[in-house]
Amino acid sequence: MPWLGFDRLSSDIDAAARQSRTIRYQRDLIRQYVRKVHGVLEKEVALLELAPDRATLESRKILEHLVRQCSPQATFLSVDFTAAQGWRPQPALRRGIPIERCLALAPDPLLMDEKLFDPQAHFRAWRQKEKAHVQSRPEHRQAVLQALAGQEVLSWPKKADLLNAQDLWTHGGKPWTADNLRKFLAEIRYM
After folding, report:
1. What pLDDT does 124 receive?
2. Cβ distance 70 to 32 under 8 Å?
3. How many angstroms separate the CA atoms of 176 and 168, rounded?
């Protein structure tokens, strides 16, 4: 959710689990499975991919390093949201991981903090929030224009600084720059 400022995770799995409920869910589900089968958890990683259809070079390197660190008999566990959510699989994340040693767990509801966490319901709620965010574009545009009213004498960098100081970032959640503000206002003129 880059538009909410959520575009990074800690590399520490427990810190990442505090940052993201879905990471926590996956961590807990995998740990529960490992206990159930009397396994040993060798290593854990949390990845955040901002593009749903491709993996970053950084993520692929982390996974390749993970394969090298783990024992030859290790099974690589993940939670497979694709079938339950109707999402496309993320094949780029599987490159370099021995497919015969991968196991994808079903995203079944799990008790967390004495409450049942249903990942399907969680993702449905987030889709609604994202839809509302997309639909809020005209209001966001008006707020930006209102904040810039009477500031025509300022330079582009100063206008960007003014908006950022008011925590009025781009609709996508990024700070304003002179360049993206200039483009934003040019688009409005052509509407």
Report:
1. 82
2. no
3. 8
Same domain, 25 and 116: yes
Is the same domain home to 55 and 100?
yes
Nearest to 112 by CA among 19, 5, 55, 27: 27
Enumerate residues 6+ apart whose C-beta is below 8 A from 159. Answer: 148, 151, 176, 178, 181
pTM of the model: 0.66
> Which of 111, 130, 149 is the C-terminal boundary of a domain?
130
Same domain, 154 and 176: yes
Residues 6+ apart with CB under 8 A from 120: 84, 85, 107
pLDDT band at 38 (very low <50, low <70, confident <90, very high): very high
- Domain of residue 149: give its range: 136-189
The count of structural domains within the chain is: 2
The pLDDT tens digits for 49-90 are 666 556 677 777 888 888 899 999 999 888 887 766 666 556
Together in a domain, 119 and 157: no
For residues 122 and 175, state if they share a domain. Answer: no
HSE-CB for 53 with a 13 A CA cutoff: 1
Distance of alpha carbon 77 from alpha carbon 75, whole angstroms: 6
**The pLDDT value given to residue 170:** 86
Mean pLDDT is highest, among 2-6, 27-31, 46-50, for 27-31
